[in-house]
Amino acid sequence: MASSNCTSTTSCSTSFAEEKHPHPNMLIYRKMEKLINQMLHSEDGIKIKTVKSFLSKIVSVFSGQDLIVWLIAHIDVFDEIDANHLLHLFASHGYIFQVDDHVITMKGGDTSFYRFQTPYFWPSNCWEPENMDYAVYLCKRTMQNKAHLELEDFEAENLAKLQKMLSRKWEFVFMQAEAQYKVDKKRDRIERQILDSQERAFWDLHRPVPGCVNTTEVDIRKLSRSGRSKQSTCNTLVIQMEDNESQLNNSNNLKTPNIREVRFYQKPGRRRYTQIKDYLKIEISELQTRLSKNVLKTSKLAESYLQYYGHRVSFDAFIVQLGSATDPFQGQPNPWISDTVDFWQHDKITGDISTRRLKLWEESFEELLIDPVGRETLQKFLDKEYSGENLRFWMEVQKLRKCSCRMVPVLVTEIYNEFIDSNAQSPVNIDCKVMEIIDENLKNNPNRWSFDEAADHIFCLMKNDSYQRFLRSDLYRDLLNISGKKYSFSTLISRKASRKTPSKTTTNQQSLDNPQFPLNTLNTCKGLRGSSGSRSGSFVGIEREKKTKCQPNSFDSSTLTMTRGNVNSSRGIRRDSSSCSSSSVAAQQRSNNN
């Protein structure tokens, strides 16, 4: 019984080891190769011919127009543009190549000649050529004294780089190239010509001209989806199993164990384990976690999705056109359809928040936090409620998660000193369990995730308590009332402008009502205040001088200096106003002397 179990285990392990991971583009390759095999059919395929040139012959070729005609006749392709695109895909993946020019593009309607690639070089064989193979090919090209086989400029540069890179193995590379060259010389001339063109087309695909797209590169996301690692690495698992038919050792009277090696492939994107047992334990725990999760029925999921999207249909611009009669918010028109950008500039120009934006805040707490204006409005409300430190702490933790590595210790220290420490300036409301977790995280290794538990706790508090009170607050209701009133766009702009600029008529009226404020110096001293909050300076002193009829020598140099000092120390004064005041004082002195 035990032997049968061991045998079954061995067979399963062997089959697992022999399993090959498919290429992520294998489905595309199979479809292309099916069409290529139809083209190569002796009766219904493309007629391959020999073209006579001036002094030579080009064998086993066909024209691009022949491909177009065959595709239209045998495939549901009614447009020549689609046929050209399909042929371009064949050429870019290396199934067809041009004889005269070494490019991986194709124009089906031209008069150039093309040739099929041999199945040995098809991409479905998962070719991953190394630099040594490329060096052997370039060396072999240099040994052939033919004009059409001379190295291009970029190929000569690549050969020099490879010679420097493989300096220790260069003698072996040269020997391989020389051996292949001797084998090729023994072939027929026409056969050698076809093989040379096919080999060159293979390297034009895998080592393209600088500036061309390398179609052999595979996206890492496709590799992950196909379950194939970027580099096909595998670990070897040694399995020892006792075989009943094994012979006994005469010296020690022990059974010789049957040792077999099983290749074990790890999934891409996962941490590499040196011990396969550790990897298997992690995978088993993940599978057990999946089994323990509650699985909902598809009908329940579909019902919840329909309810969610049906509730948010009014915010979908594809279903409800903005600014139309069906728009429940009666906002600005869609800027991508209309010629105006009022939808984008409404909040910034008018200073008000649109109804659509306010109603979106009611949908969820996450929508409120995503919006910068929503966070600012919520912060104002929380400051009034004396709980603004909660939102500030949550924002600082989000900033910590996205900061650079060198700023992590600095931000961790700042957050702890401001919100967590016993002597913090703005302590947040967290319980003892969360505090213990934070202390443990900071003690082991402070990182960008040290405050995640506290941030989640504060987020739940704000969502369950502060967010509900915010929606019922007077601040939010006032914003809704203001946005609900219908004003024209120009009226909203003028209202915002009136908030920023103070009216000039009130200042002029105050100057006319005050008899002690001279009209001829209104533009000079307008808006000046002294240290006591009242108008002060040389002008008031001059008027007082007129009423009391002071002596001409009452304004000496010290008084003038003090006057200038008072004017310069007043808020918002400029140097030209002080110079104007001193000139008016001098003029008044002359009039008194006269």
Automatic annotation (TrEMBL):
CDD domains named among the record's database cross-references: DEP_RGS7-like
Chain spans, region Disordered: 498-594
GO molecular function, one term: GTPase activator activity
Domain annotation RGS: ranges: 364-480
Domain of life: Eukaryota
Classification via SMART domains: DEP, G_gamma, GGL, RGS
A Pfam family of this chain: DEP
Polar residues: bias regions: 503-524, 550-567
Protein name, as recorded: Uncharacterized protein
Native source species: Meloidogyne enterolobii (Root-knot nematode worm)
